[in-house]
Amino acid sequence: MVQLRPVAKGVKTPLEKDGCMRNLTLLTDLYEYSMANGFQSELPPTRATFDVFFRQVPDHGSFVVAAGLQQVVQALDNFHFDQEDLDYLRGLHLYSEAFLQSLSTIKLDCTVQAVPEGMPVFPREPLLTITGPIDQVQMLETLVLNILNHQSLIATKSRRINFAAGGRPVMEFGARRAQGPDSAVYGTRAAVIGGCGSTSNVLAAQEFGIPVAGTMAHSWVESFASELDAFRAWARVYPDNSALLVDTYDVLGSGVPNAITVFRELAAAGHQPVGIRIDSGDITALAKAARAMLDDAGFPDAKITASNALNEQIITALLQEGAPLDNFGVGEELITSSSSPVLSGVYKLAAIEQNGHVTPKIKLSASKAKVTLPGRKQVYRLYRPDTGAAFADVIALADETVGGHPLTVVNSDPLSTHKQVTLTDYVARPLLRPVMSDDGHVNVFDVQRRSRGWLGELPQPVLRLVNPDTYHVYLAPQLAALQTSMLQELRG
C-alpha cells in the first residue's frame, strides 16, 4: 500500500500504529476469520480457488476497466499480524489458541492469476483468481474486494469521462469530495488508468508520478482590491503558469477583459499566457464568447478550461453544443462515480483440492444470474486474424483447449435467449496471467497506454456511453457441460 508519512505526534487515526500507517490485515469482515478458524479444525489440509468477478456494469456500460492489482499484490506481500492484532483477536474469545498461533507466523502460500491492470473485462469473467490454503484465501476476501472494487469503479468512470472528452485533456480535481484520504489517493491513480492526464491531488501526484495541475480559487480573486489586481498579482508570482479563473464576478463583463489585459502584459514581458478557467454559468455560451474575445485580442492559443460538477453526459452536451473547450477539470462526479457509486465485485469459491484431487464447486441460487461458474478457469479474448479486432470472449476450464479449431460455445448470460453458437476463424489469447510478488513501482501511465491499446481492440459500438452494443462472452463446451451437470445433480 502507499507508504504514507509518519503522522504528527499526538495525532491519532484509526489506521495509525507507532506513528505510522499500519498494515491492513484486519481490514476484513469478522466471518472471514471465523471461517478460517473453523477450517483449520474441521477440514483436512485443503487448498481452494476463489474467483473475483462482477455481474453488472456501472452506468449501464458494457465493460469495466480492471484496476487495483498492484495494491492487492502489495497488501498480500505485507499480510501479517502484529502482536496488537493477535491480542485483539484473542480478546474476542472466539478463536482457538492454535489458530491464533498459526496467525502469529503466517506466511501466505497463495498463487494469483489476474488480468493486467487497464484491461477491459466483462460480466462473469474472473478478473482475478487466487489459490491457496483455504483458511488463508478465505481471510483475503474483504481486503481484495475492497481494493479491486474501488479502483476498478473509478477507472471505469474515468474511461467514460475521457471518452466523452474526445481526446481533450481531463484533470482529476476530486480530492475534496472523495470519501476519505485513501479514496482520494487511490481514486486518483485509478482515474489516470482510465485516461486522466493530471491531478490536483499533490499527495497522489507525488506517490504515483502524476503531473500536478491547478489554477486558483475564487478566494484569491476576492482577497484583492479588484479582479485586475488579483490577476496581476498571480501573474507576478507565476508568469509562466498564468491560468486565470474568470467567473468570480462577471465572466464576460470583467473576467475575460481583465485576463486579456494581464495576458498582454505577460506577452510584452516575454511570457506565454496559459488561458482561463470557467467554473459556473452557461459554460457553452460563455466559452463561445470568451473564445471570440481571446482570439480578437490576439490570443488564439490561450486555452479555455471548464470545471464545475462535470460528468460524461455534461461534457458530451457541451461539445455537441459547440463549446470551444480545450480542457476539463472533473471532480466529484469522477472521484465518487456518483451516478453509479458501487461496483459489486464478488469473491466466490470455484474449486477445492484435497490429497491432490480437485473438486469443482458451484453456488446455486433462485436467481439465474447468481449461479456461479465451477472449476479453475481461464478467460480468452478472441480476435479476427485478418483485422486483429476482438469480437468475443470465452470463459473456459483451465485445462480446456481454446483455439485452433471450431468451438461450439454457450452464451454466458443466463438470461440470453440465443444460447449456442459455433465460432470459427479466430485467434484466442488468454487474459489471466500469473502475478508475481510486488516488484516495485508500476508506472501508472504505462498502464494507461496499455489500457488504451486494449480498448482500441474492441468494436466501436461496445465503447459508446449510451446503449452500448453487447460484447458476447461465451462458456467453452467443457465448462458449460460441467455447470449443467452440477446443476442437475444438486437440484436432482
TrEMBL record:
Q: Its domain of life? A: Bacteria
Recorded E.C. number(s)? 6.3.4.21
Pathway the protein acts in: Cofactor biosynthesis; NAD(+) biosynthesis; nicotinate D-ribonucleotide from nicotinate: step 1/1
Q: Which InterPro entries match?
A: Aldolase_TIM, N/Namide_PRibTrfase, NAPRTase_C, NAPRTase_N, Nic_PRibTrfase-Fam, Nic_PRibTrfase_pncB, Nicotinate_pribotase-like_C
* A Pfam family: NAPRTase_C
Gene3D superfamilies in the record, alphabetically? Aldolase class I, nicotinate phosphoribosyltransferase
Supply the name of the protein. Nicotinate phosphoribosyltransferase
Post-translational modification, briefly?
Transiently phosphorylated on a His residue during the reaction cycle. Phosphorylation strongly increases the affinity for substrates and increases the rate of nicotinate D-ribonucleotide production. Dephosphorylation regenerates the low-affinity form of the enzyme, leading to product release.
What enzyme class is recorded for this protein?
Answer: ligase
Q: Could you state one GO cellular component term attached to this entry?
A: cytosol
Q: What is any one GO biological process for this UniProt entry?
A: NAD+ biosynthetic process via the salvage pathway
Please report the stretch or stretches of sequence annotated as the Nicotinate/nicotinamide phosphoribosyltransferase domain: 170-358
Q: Which family does it belong to?
A: Belongs to the NAPRTase family.
One annotated GO molecular function is: nicotinamide phosphoribosyltransferase activity
Swiss-Prot/TrEMBL keywords: Glycosyltransferase, Ligase, Phosphoprotein, Pyridine nucleotide biosynthesis, Transferase
Matching entries from SUPFAM superfamilies are given as: Nicotinate/Quinolinate PRTase C-terminal domain-like (SSF51690), Nicotinate/Quinolinate PRTase N-terminal domain-like (SSF54675)
Quote the catalytic activity from the record: 5-phospho-alpha-D-ribose 1-diphosphate + nicotinate + ATP + H2O = nicotinate beta-D-ribonucleotide + ADP + phosphate + diphosphate
NCBIfam families in alphabetical order: NAPRTase_put (TIGR01513), PRK09243.1-2 (NF006695), PRK12484.1 (NF009131)
- Glycosyltransferase: present as a keyword of the record? yes
Q: Which organism is it from?
A: Lacticaseibacillus pantheris DSM 15945 = JCM 12539 = NBRC 106106
Question: Nicotinate phosphoribosyltransferase C-terminal domain spans which residues?
Answer: 376-482
Q: Where is the Nicotinate phosphoribosyltransferase N-terminal domain?
A: 26-149
- Summary of the function given for this chain in its UniProt record: Catalyzes the first step in the biosynthesis of NAD from nicotinic acid, the ATP-dependent synthesis of beta-nicotinate D-ribonucleotide from nicotinate and 5-phospho-D-ribose 1-phosphate.
